[in-house]
Specification:
Blueprint: E1 4-10, H1 17-33, E2 38-40, H2 54-60, H3 67-79, E3 82-91, E4 94-102, E5 108-113, H4 121-124, E6 134-137, E7 140-146, H5 154-161, E8 166-170, H6 177-190, E9 193-197, E10 200-202, H7 209-216, E11 224-226, E12 230-232, E13 238-241, E14 248-254, E15 298-303, H8 309-314, E16 319-321, H9 333-343, E17 350-357, E18 360-367, E19 370-376, E20 397-400, E21 403-407, H10 416-424, E22 429-433, H11 440-453, E23 456-460, E24 465-469, E25 492-495, E26 500-505, E27 514-516, E28 519-520
Parallel strand pairs: 1-2, 2-3, 7-8, 8-9, 15-16, 16-17, 21-22, 22-23
Antiparallel strand pairs: 1-14, 3-4, 4-5, 6-7, 9-12, 10-11, 12-13, 15-26, 17-18, 18-19, 20-21, 23-24, 24-25, 27-28
Helix pairs in contact: 1-3, 6-11, 10-11
Amino acid sequence: MGPVRVAAVQFATGRDVPGNLAACLRLIDRAAAEGASIIVLPEFCNRLSWYADKAEAVRYACTPDGPFLTAIRERAVAHRAHIKVNVTLTEGGRVTVGNLLYGPDGALLGRSDKLTLMGAEGDHLDPGTAAGPVIATPHGRLGMYACMEGVTSDVPRDLAVRGTQVLLNSLNSFATDEAALHVPVRAAENKAWVVAANKVGPLLPAELLPAIAERLGVPAGLLDGAGESQIVAPDGTVVAKGPRTGEAVVVADIDPALADDKTRPDGTDLFAARRPRLYAPIVAAPRPRAAPPGDAKVAAAVVRSPGAVRDAALAGAELIVLPELAFGADADPGAVVSALAAALAGTTAHAVTSVRAGAAHTAYLVNAGGLAGSQPQLHACVRHSGWAAEYGERLAVFTLPWGRLALVTGDDALYPEVFRLAAIADADAVAVPFTPAEEWEIALGLPERAAENRLNIVAAGPDDGVILALPADFTLWTSWTGPFEGRISHPLVTRATGPVTVAAVHPAQAVNRLVSKNTDLVGGRPAHAVAALAEEASGERR
């Protein structure tokens, strides 16, 4: 296995199935002409995902040996290429959203049916029932998913822990935060390649588009596919990206073997350090979300040093987060609590930092009365290996007057599973005292944890930090107070710029997790099909 040229192609589809097939073949030919050996097409290549009823969905769906997929298979043979296509498939009365990978000899190498349907897709289409395969090819181990499956971490993470080196994502999305956030973060958090192909052009029938746009209160043009198909390296770097509009073939040469290196700058192997036993709630049956105790916005602060805590509290901040080990690695934990309690005297604020508590790196939650809670780090890391030898066994959530708060300690911030656990435990906000080492951690990682879990996040590092607030405007299935600009779930971002940075967070917004009609970001997770997340063995990874 060596470097391979991959292509993500973007184009428009309508309700003309032969015309859609012609577009697929034309773009496949263009990608092959540029030397691509792996070609990824968008979601719903056969027809717009808009049906009057189930019977119409069945009528227009492909069959595995029908003319649409036969033509795609023949192109794979003609170009000696691997082609991933996404279409609606019908078998036995069910209609699924199928990802199919054809090999250079025309063989169907793998199929995965979309596990998480988006909005109205669920009216007439059926979700998949099992995890997709990790497919061994001469060009590396490939895994497939589609659109909404990449808006949360579960499905790509499941593929990655089972050994996938190159994640192939087909999209049918008008959301601009797909390309800005959801696509590249899946590469960075899993240290794997991502090849993502999105649509352009109207995603709804042209004759219905004006009325739908008026009903939703958005410009019709913002319901077009958002394009920006892209290829992303394992460090989160976008190595090639298509335009916002118009057909395009996005090509790059990649080395799949780079995805086998899961080490962080300090030498920690992020996959070897995973603790699957702790993630059991992620693969358990979802339950309804409990309401938070309050509904007001809360001022939160990121502060760089202990000396600024009093200023932040007097400025009205109710949650104040310092970097990890802000008092020094050798500080006495009791002295840290006393100092913070004194700084908070006469206020109702809580402050969070971490300390060396015996052999555990532990986050402390402190108020004017003293220690209010603690959270040992859950995952081992090389940079603390000289003294840290004990780790937490669960993620705790603390009830405060304004909502429920989880503490994510140090390098636990690198694991999407930890924030998933916080959301499942009905946290409204998360405090993160940490030390980021790579740009993606703040630029992509933490914003995605807020977006995919509907969590407010306040994170502080020695030289940087961020406050991520959940906006009231969320999805097109609720009334918006401001104009819709194409972003669906991206949080409001306030980067820390000085000794004290204050911004409002909104605990009550964590209750609304419906990213679209019938699509709950947390309660709708495909728990039944991501068992590898909680299995000790890492399967096909080698």
